[in-house]
Write a structure and sequence with these properties.
The protein is an all-alpha fold. Helices cover 68% and strands 0% of the residues. It contains three helices and no strands. The termini are far apart.
Length: 80
C-alpha cells in the first residue's frame, strides 16, 4: 500500500472575502454608481439644479454607510 494523502486544496488567486472587504467592495460599487448617476443627472439638467438621481445616490451612500457602521459596532466583541 502506498500513502494516500488528500490532494492539496486548489489555489485561488482571490483572497477570501470577509465582512470588512465585502463592505469596502460594496461601498466602492455604490460610489461608482453614485458618480455615474450624478454625471447622468448633470448631463440631463445642464444647469445648477440638482435632480432626483443625485439625491437618491446620496441617500443610498449614507444609508449603506450607516448599515456598515451598525454591523461593525454589533460585531466589535467578535473581532478582537
Amino acid at each position: 500500500m502506498t500513502d494516500q494523502s488528500p490532494p492539496p486544496p486548489p489555489q485561488d488567486d482571490e483572497p477570501e472575502e470577509n465582512e470588512v472587504l465585502r463592505a469596502a467592495r460594496e461601498q466602492r460599487q455604490q460610489k461608482e454608481a453614485a458618480d455615474a448617476a450624478q454625471a447622468a443627472d448633470r448631463e440631463a439638467t445642464k444647469g445648477g439644479k440638482r435632480g432626483w438621481k443625485t439625491a437618491a445616490a446620496a441617500g443610498l451612500g449614507i444609508g449603506s454607510a450607516a448599515v456598515i457602521a451598525a454591523l461593525l459596532y454589533a460585531n466589535r466583541d467578535k473581532i478582537k
